[in-house]
Amino acid sequence: MALTLIHASVGVAQTPSGTPNRDDPVQYGAYVFRAGGCFECHTDTKGKGQPLAGGRGLPTPFGTFYSPNITPDPETGIGRWSEADFVRAMRQGLSPAGENYFPSFPYTAFAKISDADMRALWAYLRAQPPVKQQNKPHDVPFPFNLRMAVWGWKFLYFDGKPMIADAAKSAAWNRGAYLVNALGHCSECHTQRNPLGGLKSDMMFAGSTDGAEGKSVPNITPHPATGIGRWSEKDIADFLGSGMTPEGDFTGGLMGDVIEQSTKYLTAEDRLAMATYLKSLPPIDHRPRKPQ
User: Fold this and answer.
1) What is the domain partition of the chain in residue ranges?
2) 186-221 pLDDT, tens per residue?
């Protein structure tokens, strides 16, 4: 089976109707920004915070992590970062000073973002208005607050490898795999974690009882009883665009934020590509529920 780097083949959207011109890095970066779900994580919407100024809390079994300011403010944001600093943060999970970021920042997925998309995202972030707002310190107890310990976590759970396109699959499948696994980082929420916080590889996308914000996250494998196996590809694509399920219900919570700030901005082609990939996953019989 011939394999090629996904960075070269599907890391950049094709040019369907509605997709920004990739020749304009800021405009195309806005599209990458939406696909990456950056707004909903780095904006304290509940506290009516400024866009991308950080401060949104992410409760986890290890404590509450707060997203940082990613506006180009030179004092409190990333205004003094170079593009190389940004790429290192995204690809290696390291600050400009060489300190580990906690894996609440999903660099395990973002490491797979293509070079072209990474450059465009950087250009977009640099073009945003700076907001002076200090980062809120994480509320994480010992020993989970030790950044040095993250080296051990990275050794166990982080390979930092680029995505590889599967030549035996369609262009839509490969595009969907990239959007789901790299930019969308869907497995970070939809996969149960082990006691050390690593994703359980045999339960990928099968839902989690300890997901983001401390809530259960549903199974999105195509299992007919406990997952989304009864949904068609069109059902999934429509859900990502509107938040409405095939039964006529509307999603809320963090997934509602993801749709409102991210996936509804994607082209119909990209949402359908994500659906194509999700429908191809191995079905896993798992209904995540919080213990009573």
Assistant:
1) 3-279
2) 999 999 999 999 999 999 999 998 776 667 899 999
Q: Is 52 left (phi over 0), alpha (psi -120 to 50) or beta?
A: left
pLDDT in tens, 133-142: 999 999 999 9
- Residue 120 confidence (pLDDT): 97
Taking a C-beta distance cutoff of 8 angstroms, is the pair 30, 124 a contact?
A: yes
- DSSP secondary structure string, the chain? --EEEHHHHTSS----TTPPPTTSHHHHHHHHHHHTTHHHHHB-TTTTPPTT-B--EEEETTEEEEPPP-SS-TTTSSTT--HHHHHHHHHH-B-TTSPBPPTTS-HHHHTTS-HHHHHHHHHHHHTSPP---PPPPPB--TTTT-GGGHHHHHHHH---PPPEEETTS-HHHHHHHHIIIIIS-THHHHB-B-TTS-B-GGGTTSBBSS-GGG--B---S--TTTSSTTS-HHHHHHHHHH-B-TTS-B--HHHHHHHHHTGGGS-HHHHHHHHHHHHTSPP---------
Rounded Cα–Cα distance for residues 286 and 179 (Å): 24
